[in-house]
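F.,

This is the one I mentioned.
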């Protein structure tokens, strides 16, 4: 089975700024846990809710691959590269901060919050040219299977980042069993349960639980209820 680490939903860091509510799987901002600094190259996994009409003012980043996955609502993005865009449910946004960028993110809706995952991956290339991209995916392509959303290669399905990492989203009916084979030997897998219940490599998991696995080649995944799962393959050494 290899090695595993379990992060139950309720054990995550919790930040409540009024306009922003965030749960942190790994240490971030005011939440610090020396046992939860990262999982391989996966550095940040934030589960954010931004209230109506609120958002993150302009702030800087550098040398980080930043992935945003909206779960509900719309988020407006502006950056120092001149990009203005709105990401919504079904989209995936990637920002390679590289040598440095500034950006802002706002919920322009006046009547509902926006919920999204903010994920940071440590890059395999330092001081790359900053880059922005987004894609709208067809959710039908993740019905009872994994749909690739992130890879290291521009010619693969989904978006690409500066790291030997692959992300997949899957939406499974109760009782469906599938497998995932690690693409690069030595990489680890981190599963985040977006909704529902699942058993992965004999570990029972519930909504918003995280489960990391390494020293493995292939895993088995069973949906114990209707379930949506984000599966992230990342290098463990970098």
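My design for it:
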């Amino acid at each position: 089975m290899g090695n595993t680490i379990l992060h139950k939903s309720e054990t995550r860091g919790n930040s409540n700024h009024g306009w922003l509510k965030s749960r942190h799987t790994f240490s971030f901002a005011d939440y610090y846990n020396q046992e939860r600094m990262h999982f391989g190259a996966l550095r940040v996994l934030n589960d954010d809710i931004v209230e109506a009409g609120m958002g993150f003012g302009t702030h800087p980043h550098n040398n980080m691959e930043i992935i945003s996955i909206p779960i509900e609502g719309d988020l407006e993005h502006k950056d120092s590269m001149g990009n203005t865009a709105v990401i919504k449910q079904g989209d995936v946004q990637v920002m390679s901060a590289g040598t440095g960028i500034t950006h802002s993110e706002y919920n322009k809706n006046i009547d509902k919050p926006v919920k999204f995952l903010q994920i940071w991956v440590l890059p395999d290339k330092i001081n790359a040219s900053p880059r922005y991209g987004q894609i709208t995916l067809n959710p039908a392509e993740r019905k009872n299977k994994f749909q690739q959303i992130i890879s290291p290669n521009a010619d693969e399905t989904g978006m690409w980042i500066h790291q030997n990492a692959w992300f997949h989203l899957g939406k499974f009916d109760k009782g469906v069993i599938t497998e995932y084979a690690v693409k690069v030997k030595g990489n680890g897998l981190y599963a985040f349960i977006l909704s529902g219940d699942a058993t992965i490599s004999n570990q029972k998991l519930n909504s918003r639980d995280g489960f990391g696995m390494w020293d493995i080649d292939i895993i088995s995944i069973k949906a114990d209820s209707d379930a949506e799962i984000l599966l992230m393959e990342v290098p463990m050494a970098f």
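The CA atoms of residues 35 and 169 lie 27 Å apart.

Talk soon.
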